[in-house]
Amino acid sequence: MCGIAGFVASRGTGDREILERMTRALAHRGPDAEGYFVDTESGVHLGHRRLSIVDLAGGSQPMATADGDLVIVFNGEIYNHGELRTQLQSKGYLFQSDHSDTEVLLEGYREWGEGMLERLNGMFAFAIFDKVHRKLFIARDRFGKKPLYWFQRDGVFAFASELSALLRHPASPRNESLIALKKYFAYGYIPAPHSVIEGIGKLPGGWCGSLDLTTGMCGTWSSRQWWEFRLEPSSAEPTDGQCHRWAEELLERLDGAVKRRLMADVPLGVFLSGGIDSSAIAALATRHLPAGRLRTFSVGFTDPSFDELPYAREAAAYIGSVHESEVLDLSRARELIPGLLARLDEPMGDGSLLPTWLLCGFTRRHVTVALGGDGGDELFAGYDPFKALHAADLYTRMVPQAIHPAIRMLATRLPVSHANISLDFKIKRMLRGLSYEERFRLPVWMGPLEPNQIDEYFGEHTSPEELFSEAIEAWESAGPGANPVDRATQFFTRLYLQDDILTKVDRASMLHGLEARSPFLDLEVVDFARKLPHSVKLRGGTTKWILKKALEPVLPASILYRKKKGFGTPLGPWFREGALAPEIPVGKESAGRFVEKAIRSHRTGRGDERLFLWCQHVLAEWRKGTAR
């Protein structure tokens, strides 16, 4: 796990000093070593920061083939690199390293070209300089677990793992993107290919690109999608026997995914919340480690509404792991927020960023790699909005559209509760989403602001179609006549997972130099989940039904069937009591008025504005950090 940076520049628009400055901005991602490659003839500059995980002695980067024809900088882990190495050796390839997955990428690219990507099972972002064909090739893994930003401007093409590194290049754009900020308040995060800086893009998950250097010093850039998450469910209703076989196969595939992710030459453990997904990963990990060797980690809070430690301890006791936990006083956690947000690479409004960051910091004191349960909720319909889809359908069919506004107005009179996922929050959010057509509902349910509020904040109109273009694309990608559960799966997996969940975990973990791995996103698990019908994911109001059935041999019912709690932060009371207070924006009168109104509404208890106020606070702190 590492940080990568690089650029191709015309003469006079970049040098090694700039490359070193960019690369050292990523020191937190790779605290163990740094390396550089410069080819003055082509203008190619590649930098790398290393967090040593696999082949500690032989995995240094940038890495070149023995003949020097190919050079790579790589961030990630390839879990099937052993099988790929064997295939390449059978074709006559000789390896310089003992078991470096980086060298497998180099030789794999020589043998299979861009087709290598489809053979990879792992998480990655890399750049390969092909001297023979005068090309720079960059790629990102299927779900975008590893980040990759880029820009092309003023005779420079540059890329990096984080915006902070790109901004070290003098040719980098600097101005904030208006449409990205609007989408930030619409979703709570900035979806790819947008970034908060206009002119800098994110290469989306499942995309790759080539810079053709034969056309000039800076080259010609082209990109394409090499993989797309798409559901291909069986149309026939499965029998009980079929469901049983599917459950067995799912357990087998997930077990293999966990085993592959236990590959490391450094200490590793498992994040354990006590929920289904993390408990499953931990339980399966114990199958492949000596008794008493698995270490699990959790962080809890003194506020019982947000504390999951009792569940984590129950799960740890059941599977027999060596469990480490830390209880955080909320006032202390709140004090840490400014330091975290100032180091945040790009604004993101997921309030669980704080406990995730604290968990990663605590875990890193003990191990270098941690496995987690990310992806389970998205692939197997685990979120509350999945359960709300049926109720939403009934509501829209049975309640006349003309009285929807009146019902929503009545709901605003419900007392505001700031408990974790409170009932009044669910009701108000659901009715808010039902004020819009079906393709907008999920992002409106979950986002900080709805479209008319975004218009008020920015003082100009933006159509919902433009604000939610990514959500519409994901919703409609399920195809005509698709079931709402499948449509929601497309939304959560293609958009929310990549641009919120995985981004949050990557930033939180890498700020501490910790590698986080996600067995649920293993290629074999994903391909299996894509083909399951929605009826075995959400059945009779039970979310993740087939996953729970698969895990019955390894986990007790008290874990599998307990109510979902979530990894939350008490933002509501913090803003109500003034412990957190977003600054009033200056220079934009409409935004200032809107923020003042939201603060008054929240503090007086008339409304629950926690999601917007947190997004505004994060944005303000991020701007301060960027200005330093």
- Oligomerization category of the chains in this entry: single chain
Q: Averaging pLDDT over every residue, what do you get?
A: 91
Q: Which structural class do you get from the secondary structure elements? A: alpha+beta
- Highest-level CATH class of one domain: Alpha Beta
Q: What is the number of beta strands? A: 17
CATH topology of one domain: Glutamine Phosphoribosylpyrophosphate, subunit 1, domain 1
State the share of residues found in helices, binned by percent: 40-55%
Q: For the record, what is the CATH homologous superfamily label of one domain? A: Aminohydrolase, N-terminal nucleophile (Ntn) domain
Beta-strand content estimate? 15-25%
Q: Total number of helical segments?
A: 25
What is the terminal separation in angstroms? 27 Å
CATH architecture of one domain: 4-Layer Sandwich
**Low-confidence blocks of residues:** none
Shape from CA axes?
globular
Rg over CA atoms: 24 Å
Strand order of the biggest β-sheet: 2-3-1-9-8-10
Major β-sheet profile: 6 strands, antiparallel
Can you give a write-up of this model?
- With 628 residues, this protein is α+β, with helices and mostly antiparallel strands.
- Among the domains are: 2-225, 4-Layer Sandwich (Glutamine Phosphoribosylpyrophosphate, subunit 1, domain 1), CATH 3.60.20.10; 240-381 and 494-560, HUPs (Rossmann fold).
- It has 25 helices and 17 strands.
- The strands form 3 sheets. The protein has a 6-stranded antiparallel sheet.
- A hairpin with a 4-residue loop joins β2 (33-39) and β3 (44-50).
- The longest helix has 27 residues, at 484-510.
